[in-house]
């Protein structure tokens, strides 16, 4: 079950400039920066109430973010929802006819297990499922 809007992912060309812009816009700096080697992205996270904004910049030509920005302008890349049990939610969504981009959850940024739902099956929106990794 989707329990919360976890974050909005924003694709950007220049992470430093975008971080400065969102620091001014939100009135507070980021709480975390992270390199996610498996996705070839650098990320910056801002807390906004109970949700987050994630800035994403590709670090290689093969990065999904780099490819995305080659075709589309900067802006909203995905919407992420928190889930209690990512595997159960993946099974539920597959049963409802959604197309998952990965068959198993993988490690994502901000200490999460993640899975993406293909935009073709979600009204044109890339949806990310996120489950907190417990220590």
Automatic annotation (TrEMBL):
GO terms for molecular function: methylmalonyl-CoA epimerase activity. InterPro entries: Glyas_Bleomycin-R_OHBP_Dase, MeMalonyl-CoA_epimerase, MMCE/EMCE_epimerase, VOC_core. It is an enzyme of class 5 (isomerase). Transmembrane segments: none annotated. CDD domains: MMCE (cd07249). Gene3D superfamilies: 2,3-Dihydroxybiphenyl 1,2-Dioxygenase, domain 1. Keywords: Isomerase, Metal-binding. Residues 4-132 form the VOC domain. It comes from the Bacteria. Its EC number is 5.1.99.1. NCBIfam families: metmalonyl_epim. PANTHER family: METHYLMALONYL-COA EPIMERASE, METHYLMALONYL-COA EPIMERASE, MITOCHONDRIAL. Belongs to the methylmalonyl-CoA epimerase family. This is Methylmalonyl-CoA epimerase. It comes from Hymenobacter aranciens.
């Amino acid at each position: 079950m989707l329990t919360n809007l976890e974050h909005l992912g924003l694709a950007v060309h220049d992470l430093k400039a975008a971080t400065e812009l969102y620091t001014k816009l939100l009135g507070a700096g980021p709480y975390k920066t992270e390199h996610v080697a498996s996705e070839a992205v650098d990320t910056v996270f801002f807390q906004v109430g109970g949700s987050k904004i994630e800035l994403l910049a590709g670090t290689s030509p093969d990065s999904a973010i780099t490819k995305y920005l080659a075709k589309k302008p900067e802006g909203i890349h995905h919407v992420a929802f928190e889930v209690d049990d990512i595997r159960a939610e993946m099974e539920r969504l597959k049963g409802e006819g959604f197309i998952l981009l990965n068959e198993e959850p993988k490690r994502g940024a901000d200490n999460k297990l993640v899975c993406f739902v293909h935009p073709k099956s979600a009204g044109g929106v890339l949806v990310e499922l996120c489950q907190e990794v417990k220590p």
